[in-house]
Amino acid sequence: MTKNTLIAPSVLAADFANLQRDIEMINNSEADWFHIDIMDGVFVPNISFGMPVLQAISKHATKTIDVHLMIVDPDRYISTFAQLGANILTVHYEACNHLHRTLQAIKAEGMKAGVAINPHTNVRVLEDIIQDIDLVCIMSVNPGFGGQSFIEKTYDKVFQLKEMIQRCKSNTLIEIDGGVTNKNAKQLADAGADVLVAGSYVFGAENPTATISDLKKITQ
Ligand code: DX5
Ligand code: ZN
Hints:
Blueprint: E1 6-9, H1 19-27, E2 33-39, H2 51-60, E3 64-70, H3 78-83, E4 88-92, H4 99-108, E5 112-117, E6 135-139, H5 154-167, E7 173-177, H6 185-191, E8 195-198, H7 200-203, H8 208-218
Parallel strand pairs: 1-8, 2-3, 3-4, 4-5, 5-6, 6-7, 7-8
The structure holds D-xylitol-5-phosphate and zinc ion.
């Protein structure tokens, strides 16, 4: 059976001095989404980039913009990210006290609603809300930095989450974020992942376009 596993290059690993070039590379590649990492230096120990950079990306990007917020109190910025062109807005489970309300607020702004879980968070905590979630992002590294090694436990989490999604008859997509390479992409897709984020593996390659094609090919 062939499946269409989506590939989402993470712009965090792009060359910011040549951002337009790297955005055009994604536009012209077999990539499906742009993955945009927003960090606040509080929820995670790093600061990436903010609104003006996302605005610049949106101006040129011709594909779905998948924004991953690694920030505390994300509710403050939901409408701002909608205005900046986000199509999918993902918040962290660990950063939300009222996740149900946050997801409704994201959808009310016309975006798909995602929930990311850190490596220490069990997928079971999402069971009562899975039908309200368009995308679960399983962090396969500790959020905050690109270029880290993939955590092997992730495969079990994908299996568990897939089982839960099917049992609850939900349409939720499973996204994997962190340390994705050609070594784990097929196994992740086979386990049930629908979207693979890849940063340093794509942008660190000699030929990023060919690397995206390769990821696409091995995961179908
Ligand atoms: C990590 C970010 C990831 C990161 C992935 O906090 O959420 O999206 O860009 O980078 P790689 O693919 O290099 O692990
Ligand atoms: Zn991310």
